[in-house]
């Protein structure tokens, strides 16, 4: 019956057995193998004896021209040589990271307010440093980022607010954001008072499509606004506001990005709204990943340059 070597047997094997075997294979001599390995001849002979027991094969037999390999040794040699080469590669010091060598698609998760504010600049920065790379943006938020990371649907996420529940997720605060109002400058020549603000028709952008932080802040004041329509995408706002007297309150970074591209006006909301943290999150196995480290650095730089 063929003997099967299990994991426990492999764990007890000495790596020197493989190096001794390959030295004998290449030198066809125990004494020359010992000189090559800077070991005593008895140490190499002992290694060969152990290998003969493990494999139940003589492996090398003496002849007039040296130690001739058996068929089993001939089959083992390329496998052990490749295995030692792979181990050497695995244990070698990492090469210095060069962004130009990144030639794959990097998948970034963020909601569309961050895409509006950071997306174009992030792609430009990334391509300037890694021309062979590309970026895929996936919609996510603080409620969905951890699950998407754990499912390996995204590499890194930029989210608003607190940490999720992922057991293997890292979080890093990279700054803060707050809120601005966005409206047509012709319809709103001056920032509204609180009374005017409440009376205006509001366009809501909300993950749930029902209510948002503004409604909670107004409720604390015993007030309520009139929401005439609700969207789930910030990018859809401009056509609703242009040429109308309607108003929207949204994250500062998204409001500024939309104002720059559409000519809409921004102004401070007439009620106190707490700023919130902007965070990056990633899987713990990305801690030592040089590509992940570089990508996270780019994302933090782009955010902090806004």
From TrEMBL:
Pfam family, one: LysR_substrate
Domain HTH lysR-type: 13-70
Molecular-function annotations in GO: DNA binding; DNA-binding transcription factor activity
PROSITE patterns attached to this UniProt entry: HTH_LYSR
InterPro entries for this protein: LysR-type_TF, LysR_HTH_N, LysR_subst-bd, WH-like_DNA-bd_sf, WH_DNA-bd_sf
Parts of the chain that traverse the membrane: none
Keywords: DNA-binding, Transcription, Transcription regulation
Family stated for the protein in its record: Belongs to the LysR transcriptional regulatory family.
Protein name as annotated: DNA-binding transcriptional LysR family regulator
Species annotation: Novosphingobium sediminicola
